[in-house]
Q: What sequence folds into this?
């Protein structure tokens, strides 16, 4: 029994209200802690709510298909753009090396080996 309940019962005993004391003591014993949330039975699904229908699943699959049909070409375009940027960067590097080779040697390199053996390449 909690100290508050003991204090109330002690106070009533001091007032010699035995009948009220008895009723209060019975009432305190019957009180259950309140459950502020839902009971476990409230969260259970009924037999009618246990899954998705075939129509709902088909609608979801169709929506996913439409979204992927929209996104896939964009994704492929981005992959191609990345390859183009890489190729352009490599060509620019080759042009820069050829230009530096020309400045150093007075002529353009005939092969990539000549450029690779150049003192300008680190």
A:
């Amino acid at each position: 029994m909690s100290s508050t309940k003991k204090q109330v019962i002690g106070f009533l005993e001091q007032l010699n209200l035995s009948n009220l004391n008895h009723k209060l003591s019975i009432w305190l014993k019957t009180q259950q802690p309140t459950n502020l949330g839902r009971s476990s039975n409230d969260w259970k699904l009924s037999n009618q709510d246990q899954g998705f229908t075939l129509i709902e699943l088909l609608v979801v699959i169709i929506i996913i298909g439409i979204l992927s049909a929209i996104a896939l070409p964009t994704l492929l375009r981005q992959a191609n753009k990345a390859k183009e940027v890489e190729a352009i960067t490599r060509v620019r590097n080759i042009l820069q090396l050829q230009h530096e080779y020309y400045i150093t040697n007075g002529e353009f390199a005939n092969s990539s080996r000549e450029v690779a053996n150049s003192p300008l390449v680190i």
The chain has two domains: 1-30, 53-122.
